[in-house]
């Protein structure tokens, strides 16, 4: 009887071992991410403008790419699905931890919304002002002497007591100094202002003198007619174009949708220029699944020099058109290089 019990226990142990191995195969996290088609969300629920509700039929849609940590099983599955891709953790997060990555993505979204508000209000001849707050810190490089004081998410407002109205102003002032020169940097974090002084370093990528950070502009936008935009859990800069169209339709009172479901993607700059983004093929699929009939894709002229650095050696429009032909039959892929082009297309096409 004891021998039989030992056999049963060994069998149970083998089964548990196999279950454990299977669990590791299914759920062990890998140092890579899987990107796949995300969602296409109705922007009407995100934008609230006092006295200017969206009364029109149709939808402007914000498209996204779904990103999830890869596991052995999902990795193999993604290898078999043409419209899914596997990216290294470094390429996706830039080496940042999850909290820092999410914080940067939220800032990108907030910044793109501010630009969208400014562009839309200006186009509708409504009062809007922009205030430059300073340099937003996206990353602190390992050789920076400020790395123990300045963190991702801080905003640099002054250097040596001087404030500039553009990032280029800050950079020009700093680049004129010699490596090793002490620089007093004033920055804000969580509403508090601090000033620290450390020597400047040489920036390897430009061979110029600098603080040792990767940066972008931090702008504040104020409008006479109150507007509130809440993007929820969405992050990144790629919703700029679609937010500007939704805001413009509401503040101007012009029906651009005309009953249509309109999706798209692209950054928006202060002059209304539409910029390229990543994962546009997946966004085309997401838009098609949500019933969109029009998809705006950023357009740049496909020169040989540009194509060398493009994802898949195709511009956004080329990639979107290819994905549309394969996965989104019946959906019109429309190239646009500016906010004005998108508005004109919607006004002149039914």
From TrEMBL:
Keyword DNA damage: no
UniProt EC number: 3.4.21.53
The organism's place on the tree of life at top rank: Bacteria
Domain Lon proteolytic: 235-349
UniProt KW keywords: Hydrolase, Membrane, Protease, Serine protease, Transmembrane, Transmembrane helix
EC category name: hydrolase
Protein name as it appears in the record: endopeptidase La
């Amino acid at each position: 009887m004891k021998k039989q019990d030992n056999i049963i226990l060994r069998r149970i142990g083998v089964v548990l071992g196999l279950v454990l191995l299977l669990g590791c195969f299914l759920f062990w996290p890998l140092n890579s991410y899987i990107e796949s088609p995300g969602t296409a969300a109705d922007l009407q629920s995100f934008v609230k403008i006092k006295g200017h509700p969206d009364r029109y039929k149709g939808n402007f849609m914000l498209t996204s790419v779904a990103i999830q940590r890869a596991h052995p099983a999902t990795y193999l599955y993604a290898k078999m699905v043409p419209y899914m891709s596997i990216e290294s953790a470094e390429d996706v997060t830039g080496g940042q931890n999850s909290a820092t990555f999410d914080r940067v993505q939220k800032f990108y979204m907030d910044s793109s919304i501010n630009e969208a508000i400014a562009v839309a209000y200006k186009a509708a001849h409504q009062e809007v002002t922009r205030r430059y707050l300073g340099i937003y810190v996206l990353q602190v490089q390992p050789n920076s002497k400020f790395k123990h004081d300045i963190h991702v998410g801080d905003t640099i407002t002054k250097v040596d007591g001087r404030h500039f109205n553009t990032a280029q102003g800050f950079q020009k002032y700093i680049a004129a100094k010699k490596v090793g020169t002490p620089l007093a940097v004033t920055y804000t974090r969580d509403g508090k202002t601090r000033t620290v002084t450390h020597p400047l370093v040489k920036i390897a990528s430009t061979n110029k003198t600098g603080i040792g950070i990767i940066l972008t502009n931090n702008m504040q936008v104020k409008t006479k007619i109150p507007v509130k935009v809440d993007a929820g859990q969405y992050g990144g800069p790629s919703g700029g174009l679609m937010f500007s169209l939704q805001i413009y339709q509401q503040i101007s009172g012009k029906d651009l949708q005309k009953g249509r479901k309109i999706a798209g993607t692209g950054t928006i700059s202060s002059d209304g220029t539409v910029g390229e983004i990543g994962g546009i093929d997946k966004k085309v699929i997401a838009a098609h699944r949500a019933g969109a009939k029009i998809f705006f894709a950023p357009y740049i002229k496909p020169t040989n020099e540009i194509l060398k650095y493009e994802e898949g050696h195709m511009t956004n429009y080329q990639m979107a058109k290819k994905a549309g032909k394969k996965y989104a039959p019946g959906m019109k892929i429309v190239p646009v290089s500016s906010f004005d082009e998108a508005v004109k297309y919607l006004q002149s096409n039914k």
